[in-house]
Design goal:
The protein folds into 2 domains: 110 residues, Serine Threonine Protein Phosphatase 5, Tetratricopeptide repeat; 175 residues. It is built from 8 helices and 8 strands; from the N terminus they run αααααβββαββααβββ. It has 292 residues and is of the alpha+beta class. β6 and β7 form a beta hairpin.
């Protein structure tokens, strides 16, 4: 078969994989993606690493590498990405291959520590006159990031405790680290990052996507309730008090937005400043926080 025939067959199998995913058949989804990946890499390898093969050759390797990554074969994703890189690779596509390598190596690092990262994530966007693409006031933005991380950690720990107390059991993995919080930069017109949880692979509490969605969904709904209530009506619970500390100063940063997609539904919480811009002194010293 020609490389076009191989590619078309691979994409047809990807469509089958997506249908399996929608049907909740994760095993079939992974198997079909790996089959598609094999066909896509055959298509890529059928082209010689010559200038006249570009950009098609690099694009096919990028596609094969991405399929391997989605199929959770991270070592293969790295191999295919590196195989696709030549001196003839277009700069844009070469950068995309290197991004796959970086993400795949990160996943391999987590696996070595018995961690996995669910797809559910919380997006934080910072807005204001001193905010631009990939850059924001350092002191205040760092405080906001730390406070969101702390809220997320405490929410996970509370869920662990409630589950364990309900079942009257001890932590299933003894003193092993059960979870961690990771952050990644997002391409956006403002300063935006995403938070994700890394969870121990043997932690059956998070064995399904719905449980992860439940955790993120509860976090977002409680955050919305705390912000809607405000200081006057806020409950005295620890979460609400901490959530209100996310309010920006109203000068360098005029608002932040925290969003998440839970079971296909977008939940968005906008956090305005506690006081109107100009009514209070800035809490920040100079300096910006750049992320890229």
């Amino acid at each position: 078969m020609s490389f076009l025939d191989l590619h078309d067959r691979a994409m047809a199998i990807v469509d089958e994989a997506r249908q399996a995913e929608r049907n909740g058949d994760r095993k079939e989804f992974i198997e079909l993606l790996r089959t598609a990946c094999n066909l896509e890499q055959q298509a890529a390898r059928s082209l010689e690493p010559l200038p006249e093969s570009e950009p098609t050759r690099t694009v096919l390797f990028r596609s094969a590498s991405s399929l391997a990554f989605q199929a959770e074969d991270y070592q293969q994703a790295c191999t295919l990405a590196f195989d696709g890189l030549t001196g003839n690779s277009p700069e844009e596509h070469a950068a995309e291959l290197l991004e796959i390598v970086a993400e795949a190596k990160f996943r391999l690092h987590l696996i070595a520590q018995n961690f996995q990262v669910p797809t559910s994530e919380i997006t934080l966007t910072v807005r204001g006159p001193h905010v631009s693409v990939g850059m924001a006031p350092a002191k205040q933005t760092t405080q906001i990031l730390q406070r969101v991380e702390k809220l997320l950690r405490e929410r996970v720990e509370t869920l662990f405790k409630s589950k364990i107390d309900a079942d009257r059991k001890e932590y299933p993995l003894g003193s092993a680290k059960l979870f961690d919080v990771f952050i990644r930069q997002l391409a956006a017109d403002e300063f935006a990052v995403a938070f994700r949880l890394g969870l121990h692979q043997q932690l059956s509490l998070f064995g399904t996507v719905s449980t992860g969605d439940q955790l993120i969904g509860d976090f977002m709904r409680d955050l919305q309730a705390a912000i809607d209530a405000g200081h006057a009506k806020s409950k005295a619970d620890k979460f609400s008090v901490a959530a209100l500390k996310l309010e920006p100063d109203g000068k360098e940063v005029t608002s932040i937005e925290i969003t998440a997609i839970v079971s296909g539904t977008l939940i968005s919480v906008r956090i305005p400043p506690r006081k109107a811009p100009g009514s209070a002194g800035s809490e920040l010293g100079g300096g910006n926080l750049a992320t890229g």
